[in-house]
Design goal:
This protein is α/β, with parallel strands linked by helices and about 375 residues long. The protein is about 40% helix and about 15% strand. The chain starts with a strand and ends with a helix.
């Protein structure tokens, strides 16, 4: 039976030039394909193609400007950072410290105008919105990532923490506002099951799958696509500093293409071509047969990874970049965690024609299997 469903998100659906945008858009597309009546409440925090967003939702759309809240705790945290005090506590915020206060104005209006059978919020920092809906509405949170102690991932790599980190007790508070918790991979599902009394399901990322006939040998180009978030930036800086020079020494005719607004944060390097942000992600993927995912920290499922697999690309990933997709190692993609790994793998790819073909076909089949499993979970959840 068709359900009336509301998605609440600060992240826009257009363009799909970042992993979280693609996830939200593809999930919405699939839920709509099931025959449901899907609406969106968009708290506009990020730059986006607002005309495309409005056109896609075609009237089933509420829009509020983003207003960053000022809280006493956040101000104390800011002062601590400036004074370099309390080296652990200063990185924590409370679950609702970033909740857009404009949502308090529009949510009562929405509840009055509609009865939604299901409400889906994107990220735990929007779970306060679920409190506006009564027990006749199924409340779901799509977590995307584990946010508890997130700053420690950066500290472990000697990097300055950024963005959003909460204590486990705050994450528990957020997810327990929902009836159902969506984890993006099995490892995170187990974590949320430990801290939550709610139903937890694992739903990875639905991706476009394109069965491409692989070339005899791949082109001597590698590709990285990413937004300018700190996790992407740290991984790419590591690759450019430690790995790329060694690759050029062994394969001087190699070219490295970087796409996405991360280009704004990267300097000039030999053999590197920066094409900047692209609205049509397919055009970037067409530029190379090999995609890298050199992340050195992070949680969640690396959406750029499964996207590339779905497009039949040869993918080289770090262990961290491949978290949640380990079943595809050596058949759907290869691991590379050091300069020597990259040099060795690339030389094999350009010397053994069967290897690239095997990986390309394996990538497509693996992504297709992941899609089928994720679609089954969503269909069951939204039936």
């Amino acid at each position: 039976m068709a359900k009336k469903i509301l998605i609440i998100s600060q992240t826009p659906t257009h363009p799909q030039n970042a992993g979280n945008r693609a996830r939200i858009f593809n999930m919405a597309e699939y839920i709509i394909s099931l025959g449901h009546d899907v609406w969106m409440l968009h708290a506009k925090e990020q730059d986006c193609n607002i005309e495309a967003v409005r056109e896609y939702w075609n009237g089933k759309y509420y829009e509020v400007p983003y207003k960053r809240p000022k809280t006493v705790r956040k101000e104390i945290s800011r002062i601590k950072r400036l004074l370099n005090l309390d080296k652990n506590e200063k990185y924590y915020i409370e679950i609702d410290d970033d909740f857009n206060p404009n949502l308090h104005n529009i949510l009562p209006q929405i509840v009055k105008e509609h009865h939604f059978d299901i409400v889906l919020v994107e990220y735990i920092f929007l779970t306060k919105a679920l409190e506006y809906f009564d027990d006749t509405t199924l409340k779901i949170v799509d977590t995307h990532d584990i946010m508890a102690n997130r700053h420690k991932l950066f500290q472990k790599q000697g990097k300055e923490p950024s963005w959003y980190s909460v204590k486990p007790s705050e994450e528990k508070k957020g997810v327990n506002r929902a009836d159902v918790v969506i984890a993006i991979q099995q490892h995170e599902k187990k974590y949320f099951q430990k801290i939550s009394s709610r139903k937890v399901v694992s739903v990875g990322h639905l991706v476009t799958t394109i069965d491409v006939e692989p070339k005899e040998l791949p082109r001597k180009k590698i590709l990285f696509i990413g937004s300018d978030n700190p996790i992407n930036l740290h991984g790419l800086e590591y690759f450019l500093t430690e790995c790329w020079p060694e690759i050029l020494r062994s394969l001087p005719d190699m070219e490295f293409i970087i796409a996405g607004n991360i280009c704004n944060k990267i300097g000039v390097h030999n053999g590197v071509k920066k094409i900047g942000a692209v609205d049509d992600i397919a055009s970037a993927y067409e530029m190379s047969d090999i995609v890298i995912n050199p992340l050195i920290l992070g949680t969640g499922l690396k959406i750029k990874m499964i996207e590339a697999l779905g497009r039949s690309k040869i993918v080289l990933s770090s262990n961290i970049g491949a978290e949640g997709l380990e079943k595809g190692i050596n058949n759907a993609f290869l691991l590379a965690n050091s300069p020597a790994d990259y040099v060795s793998v690339l030389n094999k790819l350009f010397g053994v024609s069967s290897l690239g073909k095997k990986l390309s076909k394996g990538a497509y089949e693996f992504a297709k299997q992941c899609n089928e499993a994720n679609a089954k979970e969503l269909a069951e959840l939204f039936k």
